Amino acid sequence: MSADDGDAGPADIVTEVTGTGVPVRGNDIDTDQIIPARFLKVVTFDGLGQFAFFDVRFDDEDNPKEHPFNEEQFQGASVLAVNANFGCGSSREHAPQALMRWGIDAIVGESFAEIFAGNCLALGIPTVTASQEDVEALQDFIDQNPDAEVEVDVVEEEVRYGDTVVDATVDDAQKRALVEGVWDTTALMGANADTVKETAASLPYTNV
Amino acid sequence: MSEGTLYDKVWDRHEVTELPTGQTQLFVGLHLVHEVTSPQAFGMLEERGLDVAYPERTHATVDHIVPTADQSRPYSDDAAEEMMSELERNVRDAGIEFDDPTTGRQGIVHVVGPEQGLTQPGMTIVCGDSHTATHGAFGALAFGIGTSQIRDVLATGCIAMEKQKVRRIEVTGELDEGVTPKDVILTVIRRLGTDGGVGYVYEYGGEAIQDMDMAGRMSICNMSIEGGARAGYVNPDETTYEYLEGRDRVPEGEAFEELKAYWESVASDADAEYDDVVTIDGSELEPVVTWGTTPGQGIGISEEIPAPEDLPADKADSARAAQEHMDVEPGDTMDGYEVDVAFLGSCTNARLPDLREAAEVVKGREVHEDVRGLVVPGSQRVKAAAEAEGLDEVFKDAGFEWRGAGCSMCLGMNEDQLVGDERCASSSNRNFVGRQGSKDGRTVLMSPPMVAAAAVTGEVTDVRDLERFEEVRA
Quick one: which residues bind [4Fe-4S] cluster (chain B) (predicted)? Predict the structure, then answer.
């Protein structure tokens, strides 16, 4: 999967994502933090990567502040490690789009808000969950070993780094979609157009 | 697994087939569209050479970026003008009905759907907006979706979903004078947590919910997502049917009766089974305000702000950061917290009854000299109806600005934003850092009457302490 900004086409099958990590700590990190609303005034997703976490990364004069996304050692990272209820708030797909265009290909966290996880899946980004203890250990490891690879294995439901293997969880539908490469739901559902018409016709409110 | 609930019934009626992903393909009865989350989806359709499958089941409005002061075109903000033009082009090409501001129907998507009768019980409703759960107040199954899913719905009239669990939230008793639906939902989120609803759909019921008008039920369902639940609903009843009868998109006469039979049939059975049941005593509630930077960080107006170390370990750090941002101290109450701005608006609380309740508090009083007061009706129709009752005069006489319809300062995508570290008493739904347009801005969520009370006193105030309530008690 390419992480270059502007080349955001997802791969067909995502069984594993391997790359260096970047930890972003804190519970309830909402989509307004991931991408502030003023950057949503766009008609494409191109170029959103630079605005990821903008208000916590830059001060009023746009000077960089202390934030993992600004730190030299995390540039080029593709595995994001987060805590609980990551991505809560608005449904804006701009949030995972911004992360993806910054370079993120997989996210490991304690838990995710549902709409956010669904948006990630639509982009082929696994959102893998693990226990609080395991996630915090992973974040610490990444801090100490920013150049080390972290493997997010969707098939085996594991996250591997150093000598550690973490038991992780991948939601069933997400796993099937990523592993079998059947997450182009537009094509999948478009093939059932006739059945859709029957379902629509069977509803009392469609005939009035 | 739940059985016999409205969720189960509406899900079954809309199920098309099971997909190879294990998800269900669900037919979408109403797709609401706005300018912020749709342009990329229309772009994706164009790239693939696909048409909109069900334009007649799709309805558009413009809300997030519209200015609420000077609405003449072109908008002074070029980016806003571009988004508006893009939406106009997309809906015209696809043949989608569009409530543009010249129609007199424009407004926040979650206000215009219900008020035109587009939103009906037993429907599946989606929109690229997390507050779509609002429509659940009618007994519809309504949820927010992302842009790639908007593409799915535009192209196929369907959405791919996994079935969720159902939690019944029973709100017993009667709400006290001065206590509103907003206080109920802030209590739900506080008790169950901002992620307590993940994996669940919330069914709200019980005496307090039954007694509520549709606006109140909408306020509650609206903020389901703030509790982590993607959808929330109330079973349809006579209050629902009375609200719907006579609205633009609701058929009359025999056709109405036929539809009503369907609506009644989808309500949860008396012996329905739920995955979880939570009971909240509505009669014990007082007005609730937030002290922090998530909607779960709320307290009753007379309660003390908690010390971070007294909270569960996983909540302590965020509480500490929130208290620093908000400039509040544990042990204090929020009563007396000075505010610079009072914002009355948003898809949570900008319907006619909300404005009436706030106006009742404002009447005969003046906005505090240090406060900027803003009333942003939820739609052009709400605005017109309020003006017909003279509510605009009440607000203007008191010193409020009376604006055009839109999302406005709920998320600050237009010119209506907090400046610097201003503090805002807000009837909106999110107190996230930066939410209202300034990253140093501070938001205190509360009900419309509480916003009105804060506007006139210049600080967070128990609305029940104001004269109106003293008179009622006497």
Answer: 347, 407, 410
